[in-house]
Each structure stands twice: as structure tokens, then as C-alpha cells.
């Protein structure tokens, strides 16, 4: 039995609320169980120096956790003068995951920055950030298309992510914190809506895993992201 009482293949309750901030070109609040992430997308008529003049667009991301998003207060990273390694790793993951769903030629020479701020954490914050980040990105691109600033849709397919792992010897979908902290195997699966894999992060936390178990986790991830793709499209159409 899972701590939450969910079935092995059952996700936490998911909701996506759009238009939650006044100024951002695209925004949403995604809630996956008790993990809540605010995602905003900002369009800028500039690109990083290394692609300037190439005609290619760029999508990047920043990620952070509010001080009381966890059970005890964390210091703001700004107070320490630098970002932690975990933060840098996660925001790079979000950025490259979202870029995998973008036709950068069609986007044109502009940058969209997706900010993901964790309001409340209960496991799976990077997966929620990627899933919600795509919704914010989609809404921002919709504004570009409506204004006629892009000729064709630069978004190839939705991008979503979900965690899966081996908990108490069983393959389970969408780990919350009690499961994540005790999982023998932990994995994050990032997929595109056309079935293409973007990235798989898997590690043996307390036990090794077999090829069959990896396949079982992949099957769960396919099931979970299919539901997320449906929710993303409902939120943005």
C-alpha cells in the first residue's frame, strides 16, 4: 500500500490554472498533489550572444524554491550569493526539455524565459515545473501568433514530465515526498506529445533494478504523461 492510498498506477490529483499573473506573456499555477509551482513565460527581442545573428530562437528556464515551500525554512539562494548545484541542474533540465519541443527557426530570433517558482514542495518539483512550464510557453507563443510575429507555430508538440520509481518493491507512478525519500529506485521521465523521449533520469537509490523493472517504469511514465498532455491541451485551448 502506498502512503497516500493510491493505486500503483495512479497519479496525484493534477490541476492547471492559467492566467494567474498580470504581466507575464504566459502563466499558470500547476498543482500535482501538494506540489504547487508557479510558471511564467517572458518574451524578449534578444537572444544569447552565442546564437546572435543565426535567425534561431532560444528558450531557457530559471527555477527556485520559496523559503517555506518545505517543512522548514530554507535560506534564499540570493542571500548566499550563488545558486546551489541542485537548482542549476534542475533549471538546465527544464530549459533543454522545453527546447526539445520547439522549432527554433520558426520561433525567430527571440528568447522566451520560463520561470518556475516552487510555492509548495511534496516531491516531483522538476516534473511539475516542466509540465507547467510548457503551458506557460504555449500561452506566450499563442500571443506571438495572434500578433502575427511568427508565421507558423514553433511548438512541435507538448512536453511533460512525471516521476516513477520502485517503492516497497513495486513500480509506482508519480512519487510524492514520502515515497521519493524511501524509494529504492527513482526516475524522472520527460516525453514529448508525439511519443518521443526527451530525457530519462534513473538511479538506484537503495537497490539495483532490472531491465524489466525499467520497462515497467517506462510504461507507467507513458501512461502518466498521456494524461498530462491532455490536461495541457485543455488548459491552453
Automatic annotation (TrEMBL):
Signal peptide limits: none
Residues involved in phosphate binding: 86, 124-126
Residue ranges constituting the Exoribonuclease phosphorolytic domain according to the UniProt record: 10-140, 158-223
Keyword annotations of the record: Nucleotidyltransferase, RNA-binding, rRNA processing, Transferase, tRNA processing, tRNA-binding
Top-level division of the source organism's lineage: Bacteria
Reactions it catalyzes: tRNA(n+1) + phosphate = tRNA(n) + a ribonucleoside 5'-diphosphate
InterPro entries: ExoRNase_PH_dom1, ExoRNase_PH_dom2, ExoRNase_PH_dom2_sf, PNPase/RNase_PH_dom_sf, Ribosomal_Su5_D2-typ_SF, RNase_PH, RNase_PH_bac-type, RNase_PH_CS
Enzymatic class: transferase
Annotated EC: 2.7.7.56
Nucleotide-binding recorded as keyword: no
Family to which this protein belongs: Belongs to the RNase PH family.
SUBUNIT field: Homohexameric ring arranged as a trimer of dimers.
Functional summary from the UniProt entry: Phosphorolytic 3'-5' exoribonuclease that plays an important role in tRNA 3'-end maturation. Removes nucleotide residues following the 3'-CCA terminus of tRNAs; can also add nucleotides to the ends of RNA molecules by using nucleoside diphosphates as substrates, but this may not be physiologically important. Probably plays a role in initiation of 16S rRNA degradation (leading to ribosome degradation) during starvation.
Protein name (database record): Ribonuclease PH
Organism annotation: Mesobacterium hydrothermale
Amino acid at each position: 500500500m502506498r502512503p497516500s492510498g493510491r493505486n500503483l498506477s495512479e497519479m496525484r490529483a493534477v490541476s492547471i490554472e492559467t492566467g494567474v499573473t498580470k504581466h507575464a506573456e504566459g502563466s499558470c499555477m500547476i498543482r500535482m498533489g501538494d506540489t504547487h509551482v508557479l510558471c511564467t513565460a517572458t518574451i524578449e527581442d534578444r537572444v544569447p550572444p552565442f546564437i546572435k545573428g543565426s535567425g534561431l530562437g532560444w528558450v531557457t528556464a530559471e527555477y527556485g524554491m520559496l523559503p517555506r515551500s518545505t517543512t522548514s525554512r530554507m535560506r534564499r539562494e540570493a542571500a548566499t550569493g550563488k545558486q546551489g548545484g541542485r537548482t542549476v541542474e534542475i533549471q538546465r533540465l527544464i530549459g533543454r526539455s522545453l527546447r526539445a519541443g520547439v522549432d527554433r527557426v520558426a520561433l525567430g530570433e527571440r528568447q522566451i524565459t520560463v520561470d518556475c517558482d516552487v510555492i509548495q514542495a511534496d516531491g516531483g518539483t522538476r516534473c511539475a515545473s516542466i509540465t507547467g512550464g510548457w503551458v506557460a510557453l504555449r500561452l506566450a507563443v499563442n500571443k506571438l501568433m495572434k500578433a502575427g510575429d511568427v508565421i507558423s507555430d514553433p511548438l512541435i508538440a507538448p512536453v511533460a514530465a512525471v516521476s516513477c520509481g520502485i517503492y516497497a518493491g513495486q513500480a509506482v507512478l508519480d512519487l510524492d515526498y514520502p515515497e521519493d525519500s524511501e524509494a529504492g529506485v527513482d526516475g524522472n521521465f520527460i516525453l514529448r506529445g508525439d511519443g518521443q523521449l526527451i530525457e530519462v533520469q534513473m538511479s538506484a537509490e537503495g537497490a539495483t533494478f532490472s531491465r524489466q523493472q525499467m520497462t515497467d517504469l517506462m510504461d507507467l511514465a507513458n501512461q502518466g504523461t498521456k494524461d498530462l498532455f491532455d490536461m495541457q491541451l485543455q488548459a491552453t485551448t
